[in-house]
């Protein structure tokens, strides 16, 4: 991930946003390669912030998602995906 984040940082351009502030953006010319550097850049930025301490793994054995739990109360990645499975499995006949 570090190498992908470095590549993303190297190809980012400084642009002026509508709010007048400058922001680093990945150029649209990256085309279909854009998702990987954009994801790597976002992950690297998250790891540099205090919010990194709120990253949790979904406890479902079938899920590999990570989630941000800023309030300390979130348990599942989504109720409709993993959070709804456990109650449904508990109600299912054995």
Automatic annotation (TrEMBL):
What is the residue range of the signal peptide feature? Answer: none
Enumerate the spans annotated as Zinc finger CGNR domain: 55-86
InterPro entries, A to Z: ABATE_dom_sf, Znf_CGNR
Protein name (record): CGNR zinc finger domain-containing protein
